[in-house]
Amino acid sequence: MYRVGVDLGGTNITVGIIDENLTIIGRSKLKTNLPRHFDEVFSDIIRAIYFAIEDADISIIDISSIGVGVPGAVDSQSGVIDFSSNLKIYNMSIKSELEKTFNKPVFITNDANCAALAEKKVGAGRNAKNLIAITLGTGIGGGVIINDKLITGVNGATGEIGHMVIDFDGIECGCGRKGCWEKYASATALARQTKEALAKDLYKKSIIWEMIENDLSKIGARTAFEAMKNGDKIGKQIVDGYTKYLACGITNLINIFQPDVLCIGGGMSNEGDTLLIPVIRIVEKERYSLYSSKQTKICIAELKNDAGIIGAALLNEI
Ligand SMILES: [Zn+2]
Prior knowledge:
By secondary structure, the protein is of the alpha/beta class. It is 36% helix and 23% strand.
């Protein structure tokens, strides 16, 4: 039998079919095309599932279950999306609707939880009983697995690690607090930090000005990294500052959970060792378990964009 994994993102609806070896044998992708009515998005989820089944050259009879990963707070028990700021939906039950449509068991959880499940099963956390998977993108997402169990909490919203405050009364966050980690260590935050540094570079000494052709709107999360690799001092200062923020939150997570593995995914993880090694250096100095014989392995996530669909397909196992 085969399983369907749906990664319902703010940009794309990505579907994969996995076989018993957890290999993806069929795929499809449709644009989420927001903003539009969720009924239309839902119709496209159904279409995308059929397209993936067709791509895998199997039939709906061969499917044992469907899993869906959603950006937002999801009650996995009831299958209700309590709230998703990306999808602009509240209190939406897609589990029962999909079960009616396909007559298969449907499982649903937060997308970062899916990534953690996938990394634990076939990615960076293979053989780890305790794993934290973090995703550095527009915000910071996280999935926490302790003693082989995904931690979901009373309302399914565990893992909102991006809203851990690292600077009391700091930068305002959309969640209502100030100083949340994701305002300092997400990809979005790094782009903002780059813009702020350039605003102070009155004599335009940085090569970033040339890279962006003096157009600040061309600054992305990777701009400072690119400049640093080309020997730019200001680029290095920006990355060094960003790295401290990132390491601060990672150290907090390690102090609280002591996972075997903490893996970093999302767009920023494409920087690989350039991002990872300086973070590890700071964490090694600051972690509470400085003298313990066992230490958390910090690494880059392995499954990249497939983590969401593989993890969603695995939801029938938890
Ligand atoms: Zn927040």
